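batch_manifest entry 22 of 60
target: Putative Flp pilus-assembly TadG-like N-terminal domain-containing protein
source organism: Streptomyces chrestomyceticus JCM 4735
requested by: lab member K.T.
priority: normal
notes from requester: please return tokens only, no post-processing; we will run our own comparison against the previous entry in this batch. if the run fails, retry once and flag.
--- input ---
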Amino acid sequence: MWAVFAAMALCTVFAVVIAMAQVVVTRHRAGAAADLAALAAADTALQGAPAACRAAREVAAAQDAHLVRCTVRGDIADVTARARGGPFAPDIRSRAGPAATTGRAAEPIPERADPARQ
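--- output ---
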């Protein structure tokens, strides 16, 4: 009789672990889709917000996700994507745009002597 309860307990633990793994995988899929969609929107932001959001929607769809929201202000894209995995459908927000400039040039990389020439 105790073997039946032990087997039921193991099955329950196994089901919980599988459900948690599904949540994590779905969240990562939504995050990847949101990141890629934001990059696509930022890449086409100069063509206007409709074109940028269309590109983001296409990229999200290619990742089996749904674009929930897309906003383009200047050259910054802010998107939210949703991926479905079983009963779970997390919404993940992502932003993309050009790197911030500090007004200073980067320090030059010093040249190293080539060990093959010495």
